Amino acid sequence: MVRLGTVRTVIKGCGGYLPERVLTNADLAKMVDTSDSWITERTGIKERRIAAEGELTSTMGALAAKAALTDAGLAPEDIDLIILATSTPDQTFPASAVTIQADLGITHGAAFDMQAVCSGFVFALATADSYLKSGQFKRALVIGAEAFSRILDWKDRSTCVLFGDGAGAVVVEAQKLNGALTDRGILATCLRSDGRYRDKLYVDGGPSSTGTVGHVRMDGPEVFRHAVTNISEVIGTTLAQAGYVSSDIDWFVPHQANKRILDGTARKLGLDPERIIITVDKHANTSAASIPLALSQGSADGRIKQGDLVLIEAMGGGFTWGALLIRW
């Protein structure tokens, strides 16, 4: 049996937050040339949540963080690291993570943002894992929060139908264990990026280029083509690191971009569709928030149980992609 390090990053709790406003496909059909059947057939999305006026990425992130702390049975002062994955910060700077830190009343430790678009939560959790295993921090909040509705071109039906707003968070803690695969915690990680494809999914604005926020632009067919191949590769590498195969997975919790991508990945890996947690129909693509939101839902409804082997993966603009294997 493969043996890992004796310090393991263990998931202690998770939580999520969704804005109140629901925007259905029928609502979108009144705004742009589309229909419920067109969106559902191509994406599996039926509705998405939209942040209210004045509801910021940090607002949603803080609420998800509080829910995760409650689930973990911990107080804000128990946290000494906050990593926020987002592509839609409140401001260019400071990092929205420090706003969340202040909202939680935390005055020690460190807080910073991480930007890897839809892969952001995977990158952020892998980063927290490294910090905790090094001994620099003891407990972390890893948050994915997005207000993607603020960077959508609502006249572009190829993108505006795909995204929604929301936030999810997990509390992780460094624990000294036996180093066996049966121990709880993060077992393996694999991160990738390839900047040659940065123009396939991007925002057409930014401080140093246009001085504007810009809007999401995407070459959908190219993203889809790369997604299934890249995701399958990184999943295989991650499983191999820990000595597992896809049939060992109890729950597959992928980035919720498009149900066709999820189905294609599942077929390629031979994964049981009943073992995939899917929220894209109700949440749409919430970018860095999608995986922690799905983890929160799967944990809250009792599907994901302590001891389960959970695989998460994502691919986003850049291209960036990655996967983590977790003993829950």
Task: Explain what you see.
The protein has helices spanning 25-29, 36-43, 57-72, 96-103, 120-134, 157-160, 220-242, 259-269, 280-283, 290-300, and strands at residues 7-17, 21-24, 47-50, 81-85, 110-114, 139-147, 165-176, 185-193, 201-203, 216-218, 251-254, 309-316, 320-327. The chain folds into 2 domains: 7-176, 3-Layer(aba) Sandwich (Peroxisomal Thiolase, Chain A, domain 1), CATH 3.40.47; 185-327, Peroxisomal Thiolase, Chain A, domain 1. The mean pLDDT is 95. It has a 5-stranded mixed beta sheet with strand order 1-7-6-4-5, sandwiched between helices. Strands 8-13-12-11 form a 4-stranded mixed beta sheet, with helices on both faces. Strands 2-3 form a two-stranded antiparallel sheet. It is 32% helix and 26% strand. The longest helix has 23 residues, at 220-242. Helix 7 (220-242) crosses helix 8 (259-269). It starts with 6 loop residues before the first strand and ends with a strand. The chain is α/β, with parallel strands linked by helices.
